[in-house]
């Protein structure tokens, strides 16, 4: 009988310890789910803010070039309507181009200011002295098509590689008309996207993250590895699947992917207001580091508290057992 009681007491004691361990295990699991949910929301918010802030910088830089060309084109229009000669317009374009290309305050580095003027017998004027052959036909060039499609507003080409430097550039263009709607010419401002490139590539949520910018046709505009400039998304890791998702949803948040180095990553992509796509790549290990830290801390605390409470419980049982023995 005495042995049976001892065995029953031992079973009850071990059951109590197991209950304590189970209780702390459940507490750790529920706490982890709750805290990790909050942390992941914060990470998603950080990614969303990073994309939104980068979008604002891109829009501001493009607007600066657009506004600059708008003012220049209007000045040239007024000069022509007030009787200025092609020589006067050439001097204005040359002076303005020299000023813009030397002005370091200009966010998008100006390459050239030029125009094609039907009002001056179809002449081509470049601010940096570019020349065109006698059989030059501007109608086939993207800047001409962009200006015509804009119908008096400022149009712009898709980004392209500027051959002398290899940097990404784009051209803003605008048609100018006389008071009767007759085309006087097209004025163009060609710029590199240096600041946009720097802003995108160095965009970070964690230390290891970086950005990628693509045009509306999914060609890479900005990438930390210059080799990928101009490469289509479909030629990159997970590219075809990502392109298919973007064509359906226009946004990707927290998608598992593989970066250009082959590292497991987390991908965020959003379409911008001008039709470009901005992506931010996070290494999986870095992205989930804070969530994993929460898990490690909760597990450590759970083990410590469960062990301490189990030791206290066993000590109390042992003390009670000794007291009963002394009583007997």
Essential attributes:
alpha+beta; Beta-Lactamase; 6-stranded antiparallel β-sheet; 20% strand
Describe the structure.
It is a single chain. Helices cover 51% and strands 20% of the residues. It has 328 residues and is α+β, with helices and mostly antiparallel strands. Helix 1 runs antiparallel to helix 2 (86-102) and helix 1 runs antiparallel to helix 7. Among the domains are: 65-193, Beta-Lactamase (2-Layer Sandwich), CATH 3.30.450.20; 202-287, PAS domain (Beta-Lactamase, 2-Layer Sandwich), CATH 3.30.450. It starts with a helix and ends with a helix. It has helices at residues 2-81, 86-102, 142-150, 194-201, 239-249, 284-287, 289-327; strands at residues 110-117, 123-126, 155-156, 160-161, 168-177, 183-192, 210-214, 220-222, 251-258, 264-271, 277-283. The strands form 2 sheets. Strands 1, 2, 3, 4, 5 and 6 form a 6-stranded antiparallel beta sheet that branches. A 5-stranded antiparallel beta sheet has the order 8-7-11-10-9.
């Amino acid at each position: 009988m005495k042995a049976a009681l001892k065995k029953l007491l031992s079973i009850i004691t071990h059951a109590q310890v197991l209950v304590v361990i189970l209780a702390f295990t459940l507490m750790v699991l529920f706490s982890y789910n709750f805290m990790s949910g909050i942390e992941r929301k914060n990470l998603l918010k950080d990614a969303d803010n990073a994309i939104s802030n980068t979008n604002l910088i891109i829009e501001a830089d493009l607007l600066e070039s657009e506004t600059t060309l708008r003012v220049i084109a209007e000045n040239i229009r007024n000069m022509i309507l007030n009787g200025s000669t092609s020589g006067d317009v050439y001097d204005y374009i040359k002076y303005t181009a020299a000023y813009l290309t030397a002005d370091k305050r200009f966010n998008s580095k100006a390459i050239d200011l030029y125009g094609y003027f039907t009002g001056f017998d179809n002449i081509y004027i470049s601010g940096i002295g570019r020349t065109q052959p006698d059989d030059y036909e501007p109608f086939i060039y993207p800047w001409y098509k962009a200006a015509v499609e804009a119908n008096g507003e400022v149009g712009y080409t898709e980004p392209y590689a500027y051959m002398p430097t290899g940097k990404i550039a784009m051209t803003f263009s605008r048609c100018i008309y006389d008071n009767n709607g007759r085309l006087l010419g097209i004025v163009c401002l060609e710029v590199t996207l240096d600041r946009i490139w720097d802003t995108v590539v160095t965009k970070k949520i964690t230390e290891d993250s970086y950005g990628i910018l693509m045009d509306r046709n999914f060609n890479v505009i900005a990438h930390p590895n210059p080799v990928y400039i101009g490469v289509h998304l479909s030629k990159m890791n997970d590219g075809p699947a990502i392109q298919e998702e973007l064509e359906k949803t226009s946004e990707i948040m927290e998608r598992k992917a593989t970066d250009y180095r082959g590292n497991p990553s987390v991908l965020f992509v959003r379409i911008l207001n001008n039709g470009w796509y901005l992506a931010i790549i996070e290494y999986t290990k870095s992205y989930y580091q804070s969530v994993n830290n929460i898990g490690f801390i909760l597990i450590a605390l759970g083990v410590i508290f469960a062990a301490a409470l189990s030791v206290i419980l066993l000590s109390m049982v042992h003390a009670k057992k000794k007291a009963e023995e002394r009583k007997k």
